[in-house]
Amino acid sequence: MIRLAIVGTNWITDQFVEAALKTEKYQLVGVYSRSLDKAREFAEKYESPALYNDFDIFAQCSSFDTVYIASPNSLHAPQAIKLLESGKHVICEKPLAANDVLAKTMYQTALNKQVILFEAFMSPHTPNFKLLKQHCNNIGKIRKALITYCQYSSRYPKYLAGEMPNTFNPEFANGSIMDIGYYCVGSAVELFGEPLSVKAQAQLLDSGVDGSGSIILGYDGFEVVLQHSKTSDSYLPSEIQGEEGALLMEMISTGRKLTKITKGSVGIDLTVKQDPNPMYYEALVFAEQYAQNQIDEACMKRSLIVAKLLTEIRQQTGVKFPTDV
């Protein structure tokens, strides 16, 4: 049984804990928050996990061996490194770190300490995303792809009203590309590997982060267009175009629906049933690595490529974070 503790008490932590417990491979034994009241409120839903508001004490605690981090992006690296150095396995929400240098340091620390670092990027582990990747070999030579995730943020009205929610604050290494845009970049790397070229543009907000943007990733013989936004909605599916057909996926982040269209056909629904909580599958994947006590090299390679691309995209679009210094 994996003795799990969590950092962060927001909705995504709830979703991960629910998924982890559903696998019957985890036990929630600890909750860290800067506020004990928030930790207590979160813990009420579970079987009396211990509460912490001192991170140094939390990191050294021996009652758990794995920590799920869902704090603001800028805190991922320093918190993960401290936990890894104390011998804890770490499941860290995407993006792994604010930049690629920090991401490399995190993985090097994990390797040095012989513990597991796992980026909680749920998409590639869902059954329908796996089918998408498999069927990329069944539509002829790939020529173009569009991967899209545009969703008007529930916090954007607060930003427009003069407030500074975390999701639009560079102090927390945030913005569109570091949030939902990650799913576009991560999905492209999972499907096609590291691109040969990157061209990015973005629409920056007054806070200094991007509200939306577009990227063209160049591959040998085809290009992948990524579009992301936290200031507008899109209802288009992602699409992979081959010489013999196309694949369409609704909500690529969770693999909602997969359709294959070949010349002269109306489309075949390839969707398979998935658990309603898409984080269930990443919880299972980490549990497998935990049982083997070994970092999955493919997952590590993808995470480092994505961190490198996110840093390059921000450099091209002018998005800077204090953690870049």
From TrEMBL:
Cross-referenced Pfam families: GFO_IDH_MocA (PF01408), GFO_IDH_MocA_C3 (PF22725)
Range of residues in the leader sequence: none
Residue ranges of every copy of the Gfo/Idh/MocA-like oxidoreductase N-terminal domain listed in the record: 2-120
Residues annotated as domain GFO/IDH/MocA-like oxidoreductase: 138-247
InterPro entries found in the cross-reference section: Gfo/Idh/MocA-like_OxRdtase_N (IPR000683), GFO_IDH_MocA-like_dom (IPR055170), NAD(P)-bd_dom_sf (IPR036291)
Entry-linked Gene3D superfamilies: Dihydrodipicolinate Reductase, domain 2, NAD(P)-binding Rossmann-like Domain
Protein name per Swiss-Prot or TrEMBL: Oxidoreductase
High-level lineage: Bacteria, Pseudomonadati, Pseudomonadota, Gammaproteobacteria, Vibrionales
